Amino acid sequence: MASEEHLSAIKGAKVLMVGAGGIGCELLKTLALSGFEDIHIIDMDTIEVSNLNRQFLFRQKHVGQSKAKVARDAVLRFRPHIKITPYHANVKDPEFNVDFFKQFNVVLNGLDNLDARRHVNRLCLASGVPLVESGTTGFLGQVTVHVKGKTECYECQSKPAPKTYPVCTITSTPTKFVHCIVWAKDLLFAKLFGNKNQENDLNVRSTDASSSSEHSEDVFERRAAEDVEQYGRRIYDHVFGYNIEVALRNEETWKNRNKPRPVYSKDVLPPKPVGQNGNKDKASNTGDPSSVSAMSSLGLKNPQDLWSLRENSEVFLEALRLFFSKREKEIGQLGFDKDDQLAVEFVTSAANIRAASFGIPLHSLFEAKGIAGNIVHAVATTNAIIAGLIVLEAIKVLQNDVKSYRMTYCLEHPSRKMLLMPVEPFEPNKSCYVCSETPLTLEINTHRSKLRDFVDKIVKEKLGMSLPLIMHGVALLYEVGDDLEEDEVANYAANLDKVLSELPSPVTGGTILTVEDLQQELKCSINIKHREEFDEEKEPDGMVLSGWTPALAAEKTKTLDNGPSSSNASQTVPLESEDNDEIEIILKDPEILAAGKKRKSSDVSVAVDPEIFSVTGAMLTKKKVEEDDSNNDIVMVDGKLDLNKKKRVQ
Amino acid sequence: FSKLQNWDSGGIYKQTREYNFSYFDELMHKRKSRIHYSSAKFLQLFCHLRMGTEGEQLTEQETAIYDRQIRVWGVDAQRRLSKSNVFVSGLRGTSVEFCKNIVLAGVGSLTLNDDRLVTEDLLFANFLTPPAENDFRGKSVAELCCDSLKDFNPMVSVSVEKGALSIFDADFFQKFDVVVVNCCSLLTKKSVNAKCRKLPKRVAFYSVECRDSCGEIFVDLQNYSYCKKKNEETIECKLHYPSFEEAIAVPWRSLPKRMSKLYYAMRVIERFEELEGRNPGETSVDDLPNVQKLRKELCEAHSLNESQIPDSLLRRLIASISEFPPVCAIVGGILGQEVIKAISGKGDPLKNFFFFDAMDGKGIIEDISNGKS
């Protein structure tokens, strides 16, 4: 098998790799060893220290350089005669258009985000080039094959939405550490150091508005000539003390909840500001502002240590002081970045103080950083395995061996004795708006929602388009591009601020909009349905997109109720058989396979970061849902997501 | 004193690091007076423990580089990894993949054994970087690998041990926590495994072999206990592994019906090579008739239907002259994962065979041991 037929298919092939990270390094190596001779590789990232434990083509000395280029050079050292073309660029750049994709025999993804995956999926569909998609998290991984018209596309199955939390859980009633992190990062950090014009819910929920609202306008502003230590303590007392007291006045809220405890700086810290300014400044005076750290000026060394409430309070005040004394220029435009040490210190300490106030267990900086930065767990072995599996699928694709295509799951715990579990790919979902031109339906208040809301929340966020064009019949409502005339730009900008029903060509209930992305060559129709009211907590976008149903939703629900059975089937899956490999036992979906005949699906732990590891089948969805149930959390579900999940949530 | 020895062999450094030096001094003193232990051995042990305490915390560099994997297996596991010593003999595609994986993961030391001289062909079979100007004259495969692997992770100590695998005695293996043999004859496999089992401390033994698009891993962790969480509770699991010799002696008819065909096929070929005095992998399609004859004999002896070992599979396994890089990556990845599990004590280790065949894409675990586990 490893021989001639393979080699002939491999030799002439021109392949595109998207991503030169964890999977990418392994993949490029395995492709080169397997005999591939013409490989193009796109990656916009540069090398970081935390890549070195698994991205073995990179060394310490390469930190800061282009991944695609360094990876190419490293592989050419052991395969000098092959052609590797690197692009230090974003795959969403316009140069990588359908024509660019058409030159390849197969596209291999080793990406780390949903957005780019969807983009590549569309370009592959538009250019008719097969796609082998992959993802890993810790010991888990998967490889899938997407060939237009033969197997489902990457977007045929719903992807679990990134988890979001109801606003009031974050602002008033946190029950888990992650809620405190979201509060510290998205509200407090953004309020203090981010863009002042951004909407921020930090103070809006205090019911007793009369007394605080006017105050709160400037409470976060540093007063003229206010000492930074005093300012820090004032912020501290306001958010951890005063705001909690305000919240406690609303008795209704705490009927069935544990009451939080207000925390004031004077109760935790000695009355005088900690430390001597002179010393601290000397300690941190060296080097560039990015190396400023509250931990080092306080002598805290191990990021794995759990800090006491007092230590957290010291870190909080010190980090805030350092921001104002060392990085003042950045204030007002900072966004949270997991690689910004001081930002991580501030968020960790703030989250911990809030957690202490609400009786939630505290966490170390290391853990907090992982949660705040959505850091993906990654090990070299899984990436190596997945890269091997990608190459196997790529070879089948090149040989057009459709019958042998498999999606393969790499599991942490064996399921039916398997650590590597192949499953036959699904057929395209006939109601997929991406590969089947199925119209969508949008419920929206056409008298209140502006075109801008529609563009941001639906076209960009939900449909994942980057260069959209919106038409009502033949009338152009909106368009993005470099080649627009000035008056067109002005016209579209004006349209963005109009409510739908007042557009030059009014959009009302019954209107059919056409939305198109010229780069992705994706076009879909959206039926507009007017709706007056939306539930603020459950439908925070103020609009609901639907019409795109996962093919297996109905079956899945049945399965959950009746338990797995191998009769009436919709998918075929090869399993071990007595004497011959051709017998196929028929199952409904991979969930059953994963679960085994009697086992609970929790035996297969596939609960992972949806961004990175978006399992195509139902395995993940179900696991996710179970988790959510047990935590009593409300998950805001995208309008387009599958019914099964929706039903189970709330 | 036995307790201390347990720590030593079990790799439970977590406990040792909680005591400081003076505590150990005192402890040593007390114990010494009670048990007459040779002072040399004593010193050796003390040094070991001392080293254990020195590595109490990961360095800043380690924390930065291993950040993403510490998030998978925790600091304790990382600490245990960084104190482990691994020996690998036979450097082919799969074992080189394995070496790369554990060097990246950050084991303490890796010792390589493969005296074959580097040739153009051998160089072509892996991803290790040739020396400047392609001057590999007189270099052994192990030396070449050593240079490249050191470069992958400067925090791991990589070295070469010359000599034929079969002549190393049990004492030699005492130095290691893990022994991996790749592409090794049946006889040597059995004897190295037996030597590892003789030692007072546990030396985990792994054998790995890839032919064509198929791979096999064998694991012997002897008696292995570990903790795992089930429904919030921590339960202790105990596993008893048979030696390679014991495992392959299990009568075929007593094995489950759905046993991976690859298991039988590998035994036939292994036996064939032994009878013919061939090196592992020294086969060709021309051997098929004789291999088929042997299959018949073995199947009759074991009362197994010959259809369990299809011709097509045998042909693939003996005809292939080179390894298949994607399969090396997959099997080398699984092996790396297993060794990391065994060293760190995290996760269910596989017991005791793993098979991968690119034809069906399944990676299957088989438990082949006499009686219960």
From TrEMBL, chain A:
Superkingdom as given in the UniProt entry: Eukaryota
Entry-linked Pfam families: ThiF, UAE_UbL, UBA_E1_SCCH
InterPro entries: ThiF/MoeB/HesA, ThiF_NAD_FAD-bd, UAE_UbL_dom, Ub-E1_IAD_1, Ub_act_enz_dom_a_sf, Uba2, UBA_E1_SCCH, Ubiquitin-activating_enz
CDD domains: Uba2_SUMO
GO cellular component terms, A-Z: cytoplasm; SUMO activating enzyme complex
Bias (Basic and acidic residues) ranges: 214-223
Annotated stretches, region: Disordered: 202-223, 257-295, 557-577
Domain Ubiquitin-activating enzyme SCCH, chain residue ranges per copy: 316-369
Presence of the UniProt keyword DNA-binding in the record: no
Subcellular location: Nucleus
Compositionally biased intervals (Polar residues): 284-295, 560-574
Domain called THIF-type NAD/FAD binding fold: residue spans: 3-432
Main localization, broad class: nucleus
Known pathway: Protein modification; protein sumoylation
Protein name: SUMO-activating enzyme subunit
Organism name: Solanum lycopersicum (Tomato)
UniProtKB/TrEMBL annotation, chain B:
Cellular-component GO terms for this entry: cytoplasm; SUMO activating enzyme complex
One record GO biological process: protein sumoylation
An MF annotation (GO) of this entry: SUMO activating enzyme activity
Domain THIF-type NAD/FAD binding fold: 66-362
Alphabetic keyword roster: Acetylation, Ligase, Nucleus, Ubl conjugation pathway
Keyword Magnesium: no
Compartment(s) where it occurs, according to its Swiss-Prot or TrEMBL record: Nucleus
Pathway in which the depicted protein is active: Protein modification; protein sumoylation
Subunit: Heterodimer of SAE1A or SAE1B and SAE2. The complex binds SUMO proteins via SAE2.
Family: Belongs to the ubiquitin-activating E1 family.
PANTHER family cross-referenced by the UniProt entry: SUMO-ACTIVATING ENZYME SUBUNIT 1B-1-LIKE, UBIQUITIN-ACTIVATING ENZYME E1
Protein name, UniProt field: Ubiquitin-like 1-activating enzyme E1A
Organism for this UniProt entry: Solanum lycopersicum (Tomato)
